[in-house]
Amino acid sequence: MDRGRRPFNLLRWFGALSFVTIAAAAVTMAAILSYFLAGEILKRHASQTAEFISTVSEIQSDFGGFRHRTGMAELLGGIRTADELGVSKDTARRSREEFFDHMRALPSIVSIGVYAHDRTAIWSYSKEGHVQPPKPGRKPEILEQIFAYRYAGSYDAAVNWNYHAAEFLSVRPGRYDVIYYVPLYDSQQRVAAVVQICEEPIGLLNSIRHGQMLIWASFLVAGLLIYVILFWVVRRAAVLIRCQQQRLVESETLAVVGQLALAVAHGIRSPLAAIRSSAELMLEGLPEKLQTHAQDIIGQADRLSHWLRDLLVFSEPEPSVALVENVNIVPVLEESVENFRSRFSQNCISPEWIRPAVDVPAVVGNRSLFLQVFNSIIANAVEAMAAGGKLTIRYDMDRPRHCVVVDIADTGIGMSADARAHAFESFNTTKPRGLGVGLTLVKRTLERYGGSIRVESAERKGTTVELNFATCVPGP
Q1: What kind and span of H or E run contains 158?
Q2: Could you tell me if residue 85 is left (phi over 0), alpha (psi between -120 and 50 degrees) or otherwise beta?
Q3: Which residue among 72, 87, 295, 455 sits deepest, i.e. has the most Cβ atoms within 10 Å of its Cβ?
C-alpha cells in the first residue's frame, strides 16, 4: 500500500472537471450561436438590400420605357444596347445616372462598384476617407462565381454568395465595414451585372453586438447556475456518503464493542464483585497501614465496574418505547450535583446556580440516562479543576428552538483545539485512566431524544458544555 498517496477527493475532482466541462460547453455553444446570429442578421440584411437594388433596377426600366423590366440590368451589363432595348441613347444615359443616384443614396454606404458582364468595373463611388471600390479593369475572383449563378426565384440563394464572400474590413479603430455583392439578372435569368456594396452598418453591428452579449451573458449565467446546482447536489451527496460511512464504521465498532462488553461483563463482573467484597471485609481486621491498600483495591474495582457499565451502555441499540418518558430536568440536575458534593469539598470547587425566572417545561427522554449525562459532564469538570475552581450551572427555556438549555461551565485547564475537534470520537481521551466514551455517550443519549451538545473550550480558560433537551410540547 502506498502511504504517500492521497485519498481520492470526489468533491474536488467533480468541482474541477465539471467546471471545465460546463465552461467549455457554454463557451462553445455561445460562440456557435453568436456566429450563427451574426451570419443570419448579415444574411437577412444583404437579402433585403439585394431585393431593394433589384426593385430599383426594374422600376428604373419601367420609367425609362425599356422593353422589359430587366432592361436596366442588361444595359449596365453591356449585354444589349439602347437601340436593342427600344430607347434612345439620351434616355439610356439618363436612366443610368438616375440608377447610380439611387445607389449613392443608400444608407450607411462607404463605397459602391458596378461590374459589367465582361467583369470590368463600369462605375464606382466612395465617400471620403473610406475604402475605394475596385477601379475599372479589376476582376475580383468572387465575380466568376456570381456570374455563373442562375436566378432561382428568390434572393436567398444569391445571398449565400454574399454571405460567404462578406468581409469585415477594419478601416479605423472600433469601426468596421461590410462588403458584399448583389447580382442583377437579364430576361434569361442570367447574371447581367453585379453591384458591389461596401457599407458601415453601425446600427446593425450594434444590434449584432448586443445580441451576442446577451447570448454570452445568458450562457455564462446558465452555465454558472448549472455548475452551482450540480456542485451543491454532489457536495450534499458527498456529505451524506461520509455520514453513512461514519455510521457504518460506528455500527461496526458498536457491534465489536457490544460483543466485547458482554464477554468482559460476564467474565469479570462476578470475580470483580468478589474482590471488592473481600477488600471491604479486610478493612475491619487489617492494621491501619494496610487499610490504604484495601481501599485502593476497592477504588480500582469501582473504576473497572464503571468502565464495564459505560461499555454496556455504549453498545446498546436505540432506546425502546419503554425508555421514553417526560422528564423534569431540574431535579435530575440537582441530584447529579448533590452526588458530587464530597468531591467539590475535596477539590475546593464552589458550585454556582443560575436559575431562570420561570419554570422550565418537561423534556423528552429518560431520567436515568439523563442523570448519567449530567454525571459524566460534571465528573469531567471536576477532573479539570484538580486545583480548585468554580462550577457554574445555568439552565433556561429556549422558546425559538423549543428546547431546554443547560450550560455547565468550569474554570479548569480547558481543551486544546485538536482535543476539542476530536472530543466526540469513540475511545479518544486525554486522561491517563480514561476510556474515551464519556462525551460520546452523552452525545448519543441526547441525539436519541432530539437533543444536542456543544462544547466551547480554550486552554487554561475553562470549558463550557451546552446541553439541549427537546421539550415535550413545542412552545408558542
Answers
A1: helix 156-165
A2: alpha
A3: 72
CB-based contact 431:384 (threshold 8 Å): no
Tens digits of residue pLDDT in 378-416 = 888 888 888 888 999 998 888 777 789 999 999 888 888
pLDDT tens by residue, 95-153: 989 999 898 888 888 888 899 988 888 888 887 644 445 554 445 677 787 887 766 55
Q: Do the Cβ atoms of 423 and 436 come closer than 8 Å?
A: no
- Helix (H) or strand (E) segment spanning residue 397: strand 389-398
The 3 state secondary structure assigned to 228-281 is HHHHHHHHHHHHHHHHHHHHHHHHHHHHHHHHHHHHHHHHHHHHHHHHHHHHHH
CA atoms within 13 A on the CB side of 83: 0
For residue range 63-104, list pLDDT tens digits in order.
888 988 889 999 998 888 888 888 899 999 999 899 998 988
Q: Does the pLDDT at position 13 exceed 60?
A: yes
Q: What is the pLDDT of residue 170?
A: 37
Contact call for residues 93 and 75 (beta carbons, < 8 A): no
Nearest to 234 by CA among 77, 22, 454: 22
Query: Is residue 359 within 8 Å of residue 400, measured between CB atoms?
Result: no
For residue 468, name the pLDDT band (cuts at 50, 70, 90): very high
CATH number among 2.30.130.10, 3.40.50.360, 3.30.565.10, 3.40.50.920, domain 321-470? 3.30.565.10
**Residue ranges of the alpha helices (H) in 86-155?**
89-104, 141-147
What are the sequence ranges of the domains in the chain? 10-200, 321-470
Residue written as cell 442570367? 190
Average pLDDT estimate for 193-221: 84
Cα(119)–Cα(213) distance, integer angstroms: 41
What span, in angstroms and rounded, lies between the C-alpha atoms of 140 and 104? 22
The confidence score (pLDDT) of residue 258 equals 64
SS (H, E, C) 54-72: HHHHHHHHHHHCCCCCCHH
Longest dimension (CA), the chain: 153
Question: Which residues on adjacent β-strands are paired with residue 168?
Answer: 178
Q: Does domain 10-200 have CATH number 3.10.50.40?
A: no
* DSSP β-bridge partners for residue 351: 391
Rounded CA-CA distance 417/352 in Å is: 27
